[in-house]
Amino acid sequence: MDNAPDKSDTIAPDPVIEAYKKDIDVTLIRENLRLTVDQRFQQLMKLQRFAEELQNAGQKARQKP
Q1: Could you state, in order of their start, the residue ranges of all structural domains in the chain?
Q2: Does the reported pTM lie above 0.70?
Q3: Residue 40 and residue 32 in contact, taking contact as beta carbons nearer than 8 Å
Q4: Closest CA to 41 of 53, 32, 29, 51
């Protein structure tokens, strides 16, 4: 008995997913996967602080006459 997948069992690639794949930077994914979980959390927290700073700056800019 052969356990190899039958060609009728394969799923055709989704054209929408294939269109988005060309825009994915795989080097960034690989670089991130080389980091430890702790390093990834540190990066996430740094990004969150930056987002908060941007939000605060935007609020201050809107308050100025």
Answers
A1: 37-65
A2: no
A3: yes
A4: 32
